[in-house]
Amino acid sequence: MDFYTRNLFTLKSKYPLLAQKIEKTEKLSSVEVIQSKVGIPTLRIRNNGNEGILLHSAYDPLKEARNFIAGYNLKETQFLIVLGFGLGYHIREILKNYPWIKLVVVIESNLPLLKNALNLLDLSFIFSSSKVKLILEENPVKIEKELHSLGTILLTGKTSLIIHYTSLILLKKEKFIQIKRSINDAILRARANLTTNITRGNIFQKNILTNLPQIINNSGIKNLFGKFKNKPVICVAAGPSLNKNLHLLKEVKGKALIICVDAALKAMLQQGIKPDIVVSIDYGEGTRNLFKGLMDKTLDLYLAADPEVYPKILSDFKGKKFIINIHKPLTQWISKFVEDKGTLQKGTSVAHAAFSLAKAAGGDPIILIGQDLSYPGGFTHSEGLNLREKVLTGIDKKTGKKYLLSKNKDGKWQGRDLIMVEDIYGNEVPTDAAMYSYLIYFEEMIDSTGATCIDATEGGARIRGTKIMSLRKAIEKYCTKSIKIGEILNEAAGKQERVKLGELKKEMEKVIIKLNEINFWAKEGQKVIAKLYREVKKKKPHLQERDRLIRESNSLKDKITKVEPFIRAFLEQEMYSYLYLVRRKTNLRMDQLSTKKRLITQIEKVGIFYEGIREASEKLSKDFQIASSLLGNLDCL
Fold first, then answer.
1. Domains, the chain, ordered by start
2. pTM higher than the cut 0.85
């Protein structure tokens, strides 16, 4: 079997779609194959008519790879991102001589060059490795998306980046900068998600269970899918530029579906403009404050909210509601008894959810206003909103580094990281890490939609993939025909999904019983681990007692881990912070520890597990009991 056939066969078994892309790709022609002094190939790459640059050493590519990797301090690295594959010599070096590295993510943006590599060497060792994740992509947005899916893993240990610069010689400087930034963006966004899950993860499931009556009694968002096909939809966010053109929406009422985020509702009502749909997805109590003094004005409005939203939003909203389903273990379990309500690509902000709804409804064009994603003029939100705050830019006199200044809860100015991005006029505008991650996600969403997307914000960050246009011009061009919006929304809101309420109530009682059993096992496990820890710490531990305690702990742990998969998933969602700590300990370099230290680390890890299970099962049991009582007043179906 020749090299290319062997390599392609290996790729097809692990990356079938990538293999298809490679098969359709032509080899790079501007290269010369050179046999190195040690008898293995390298390539000379000609670029813009010059003499060319060697991809790897003409003397000994393997020795060069060893020296190249040795130049990085990888002693504590568990996860490695490598930009540039070349002929794979440096990847081979990592896999053979750095066994403690658990995952190697290889990003290669030049498919023709990779096809040359497949013809020159047997790379099946690399492609078949369980440690290797291959990303063959030149689109920075798609690279960011693939890396983000690995974000939680990458944050459970030290992650390092290696750049094989000669592999990127044919890459334009601008594209290289974009790809490198996409790697940082993925880590940044993953860290933000991780922080949210750790600090607020235990609230999500409580909100879902509290919202169960609302989930059952209201129409699913799927009843709006495709109802506004090829009709203009305007998404209203609460950015500082909203003041420039919000008043123009009076002219489009009934000529475009107007979807606003909850934070923008007050500004719209102050202008005497009622949106058609308000979107709210945030789980925190502060979200209810966005509706302060407004709920009595919502009778003729429609709300789109997901099951994790703060419960007082759904219960207090006077108008009709659409429920957005989400892909979480608890909602998937509920879907066994409550017909699916339909899902949206919720994203990382309420503005993403509003855009996703516009897309799902069939909107074309989708017009964005108030979507600054930055702080033009030094403000966070539109005028007249309680959320509006002043933001300043400071400069560190020692380093010259710029940073953002905003007031904390105590009214004191506090510095935070500043990111400068291009605005719609080609100038730079300040934003922060969270807002920048929203921008990146918007660009991903827009990249995957076939609708015309118009940025009519008239300020703020440049959103790639949108057409920049004033709202006045967008209205004159697209919002000219009447649409029976009220009839469409009313009909959709009147539809009701099927519910097996009796079965749901019975299964909830079974879950409560099982959670109480798990809680007992976890408490017993904590007692055993405490005894085991004391025994192992002794200068001369009693080995038989140690082994007995280990067996007892393993037995209790087995009982917990072998419960029904859906209950295990509920617990994992609830104890995110504990699982993160367990994974961090799992990714320690055990080969550097003594036998005793390794055992103590294992005991500590199991102790964290038991503590997380005990706390999660106790809280979940209470939340299920409250939800069960809320359903008690509903009629069985």
1. 3-192 (3.40.50), 211-387+418-482 (no CATH), 501-631 (no CATH)
2. no
